Structures are given as structure tokens and as C-alpha cells.
Amino acid sequence: MTTTVPASPAHRYDCPIVLARVQRLRGIWFRVILEELRIDRNADRDTAILDAPRRLNAAFETWIRERPEAWLWVHRRWPS
Question: Which domain, by its residues, includes 31?
Fold first, then answer.
């Protein structure tokens, strides 16, 4: 249930998808963390594009497991 739309131009133009998150440190202090999600241009286009959402969700899972108290979903992100 994650879009593949960002992966298509990333594959075509060989540019990364930038993942961003903000962590609250204390009070009004925050840390912005950027991570690069590269699309494998050597792989088959469809395979590379379909792999991007899996890797994106794996990044979300890691972030949520690191700080579960910082996350709130107001919709069913992963329906069963």
C-alpha cells in the first residue's frame, strides 16, 4: 500500500529518493535526519521500482522500532 511513483523518475534520472524524519530531542530542540534511498539502475526497471516501497517500509519499520512513542498513525497504514 505504498506508492511506487517516486521510484520511477529516480530510476529514469539516476537520482536518489531522500527520506526525511524529525526527532524531538528536548523541549523545542529537534534533529532532522536525511537518508538516501537509491534505485538500482542496473536491475530490471520494474523490479527496481517495485523494490523501492519495500525498502521504504523497511526504513519506516526501523524508525518506528527505534522510537515507537514518537509515531502516531491516524489511518490504517498496514491493514491486515
Answer: 7-70
